[in-house]
Design a protein that fits this description.
Elements: E1 5-6, E2 13-14, E3 23-26, H1 33-39, E4 51-53, E5 59-61, E6 68-69, E7 79-84, H2 94-111, E8 125-128, H3 145-148, H4 151-162, H5 189-197, H6 213-225, H7 242-253
Helix pairs in contact: 2-4, 5-7
This protein binds zinc ion.
């Protein structure tokens, strides 16, 4: 990642092992950046992460994001990881918040990670180690509740980095009623299928060839997670432009 100091480690990761990326997991080192850097080079560690921050704002990258770091057990396959210098109970420094935000912004651009807080392994966005429970190694105090409370701030900073408008308060405009079943207009079904596959619409909603309120709600959810794609064009339908449609398809089908 541009902006990170590339510090490749020869051991403790799986080459080419990264599947699609759901998000970025925040950790606390319970130690220093220097100590962690040397520990990850020791094959006895059996641990690593993709990124690491120092309290002063140094950003290391140890593992390429195409490769699997060993940071959160069952969550390694589909989540990137960032370790942070400090002890349990610390908060991240202002510099660390900016660095993690840069990692998240980059993961958004490169892997389609939505700019939002995730709170479970089924979610997407910026998560934290403890949310994975025992499947993720049972690290219930990593990174600690004070840092978990900072995740929303990191997401806001990442939105600034990407130039995206603030998320969370957006409601999709109602689709023109002329788009209700009408063979001359594009069908709403492919959009509904993609929204479901990407997790923005409940799978139990029946597909229908109109842009009803539930489709509009799902589009609003997508746009709140990806503010940059709000109404970026009108080639496919009134609320998802070509860039948004491409992003939604990546989220839905690049698994
Ligand atoms: Zn951890």
């Amino acid at each position: 990642m541009p902006g990170a100091l590339w510090r490749p480690i020869p051991v403790n990761h799986t080459r080419g092992g990264q599947d699609s990326v759901r998000g970025v997991v925040v950790h606390i080192m319970a130690g220093t950046l220097t100590g962690t850097d040397s520990w990850f080079r020791n094959s006895r560690a059996q641990a690593s992460s993709h990124f690491g921050t120092g309290k002063g704002g140094t950003l290391y990258q140890w593992v390429d994001t195409a490769d699997r770091a060993w940071a959160q057990a069952g969550g390694n396959r589909t989540w990137l990881s960032v370790e942070n210098e400090g002890q349990g109970g610390d908060v991240l420094t202002d510099e660390q918040l900016d660095r993690v935000a840069q990692v998240l912004a980059w993961a958004h651009k490169t892997h389609g990670v939505p700019l939002q807080v995730a709170s479970s392994p089924d979610g997407r966005g910026l998560g934290y180690h403890a949310m994975g429970g025992s499947a993720w190694g049972g690290h219930t105090s990593c990174p600690g509740s004070r840092i978990v409370a900072q995740l929303a701030d990191i997401v806001r900073r990442a939105q600034k980095v990407t130039g995206a408008p603030a998320a969370g308060d957006y409601t999709a405009p109602a689709f023109p009623s002329g788009l209700a079943p009408n063979r001359a207009k594009p069908s709403a079904k492919p959009l509904q299928r993609a929204l479901k596959a990407a997790g923005f619409m409940s799978k139990s909603v029946a597909e229908a060839d109109n842009y009803g309120p539930r489709t509009q709600d799902a589009v609003a959810k997508f746009h709140n997670a990806h503010p940059a794609y709000r109404a970026a064009g009108k080639s496919y339908d009134p609320a998802i432009g070509p860039r948004g449609w491409a992003a939604l398809n990546r989220l839905a089908y690049d698994k």
